[in-house]
Every structure is written in structure tokens, then in C-alpha cells.
Amino acid sequence: MTIWNLGSINADMVYALPHLPVAGETLAANGLQRFLGGKGANMSVAAARAGGQISHIGAVGSDGCWARDRLTEYGVDTRWIAEVDQPTGHAIIAVDADAENLIILFPGANHAITGDQLGQALTSAGSGDLLVLQNETNAQVQAAQMGRDLGLVVCYAAAPFQAEAVQAVLPYLDFLILNEVEAEQLHAASGLAPSDLPVEHVIVTFGSKGARYYRRGSDPLAFSAYKVNAVDTTGAGDTFTGYVLAGMDRGMPMEQAIAQAMRAAALMVTRHGTADVIPDLQEVRAAQLD
After folding, report:
1. Where do the domains of the chain lie, and which CATH numbers do they carry?
2. Which spans in the chain are helix H?
């Protein structure tokens, strides 16, 4: 099968700071690095490194051809990434001494994906393939509807969180992943707890406290997080999601896919960076984790 990812592609500018700034404060950064990023690109790289077959649907500007080339190097099918007349999306990421982060996003080309581009890509999809969306591109509802009509397994990673965006695609979803805060916000907006959502598979992540998996009609399953020395939490959730999707794509039971994704996310937080430092499957399986 194939994972089709309608996903963002960003240049991540990561600034190391002594602490996260407050309003009106000016801080000198201790360092600067540029990485391939965007929740979509991160998930595509994670899924590819986990052994999944992944096709990315997205857009970059003329300043972002390096990002498309790097995705290709990482094993992602980039035929459906268009070059458009807008700047490539980028993120300004501040990371403090305790590995907490603050992120400013500029969507750019990520909001210039056309219906024709989406349709041309998904006509190559087969029934039972996976389609994943996040809230960093346009055309989410159109893609979700198209995915359902084509018999795809429609998945949504609900970040950056907007209750309206989740509720718009909710009728078409087979799989939904949220973090603890997002689950609380969706509950407040919709009146539905994770166990009550009309979605077959729901995962709620709790950072260092682990994750919980809800399958409709079954009791929830809890997964403990590994204890590691975290240096940067950026991209950990995307790594987790990409690994879960790759496990689904490869026919793994959901419990096994989640357990493997927990290991990948644990390794990810021990590294500085985003897509470029996501661990591969060999590293994940070989890691000595408590």
C-alpha cells in the first residue's frame, strides 16, 4: 500500500535560547540551524524511515527546491510536489535550555495547493491506501472527501489545532491523532470525549506521560513513555505519527505500531532538529530504552 500525505513543507530555522521570550523581551540566540521541516514533511520522512511507502502532495516556491530534493533523498515520492509562485513555508523555532519550544509559522506555498494537483495525485491511489492530512495546508476537506470516496483510510493529525478544522473533516475520518491539550479543546468545542468520537481509531498523546489508544467499541489502551534525556521536543509528535502510519501501511496491529512509534519518538527528543534527524527503523529497533 501507499501513504498519501497532503502535507506542509517548511524551512525550519531553529534558534537556541536561554529561555523562551515573553512579550516585549529581546533575547540573543546562542545558535542557529536550518532544517527541513513542516509537519507534513516530518511525517513523510518518519514514515519513509519506518519502512512505509510514502507519496507527498504539497508545494514549494522557487526558494524551496532543496527541500523537495532532500525529501527525495530520504525515500519520499515527490512527484506530486508542485513549484509555485509563492515563498516556501517556513518556521521560526525557539528552543530553550529545558528543551521546550515556541514556533512561529509562515504558510507560504503550503496554502497554494490546487484541486487539480490533488486530484491528479489521488487518481493514482488504490483502495485501502492511507491518506494523511494536517492543519498546515489548504484543501483539507476536499482531500478528506476525495479520500473517503476513493476508499482510502483517511487520517488526520490535528495540529496546529483548530476545532473548526477538525470538525470539518471529522465525518470522513478513520483515524485521528491529538495531543492532550488538543483532545481537551475538541471536547470543549464538540462535547465529545476521545472515546465518543465517530472515528474508528483515535490516539491521544501525553508527551512524557505516554499515549492512549481508543478503538471504537473497545476499552482504551495505555502506553507508557520511555525515560530519556530530552534535549528538543520539536518534531517528536510528527515522528510518532509517521511511525504509526508506516506500521498501519505495513499491516502491523495498531498496538504494535504504537509501541514502535513510542520508541521512535523517545529517540527523537534526544536530538536537536526536525526531519533531518528523525531516526530510521534500524536505530529504533536497536535503541536501548528504559
Report:
1. 3-22+29-286 (3.40.1190.20)
2. 39-49, 65-73, 115-122, 140-149, 163-169, 180-190, 236-249, 254-268, 281-286
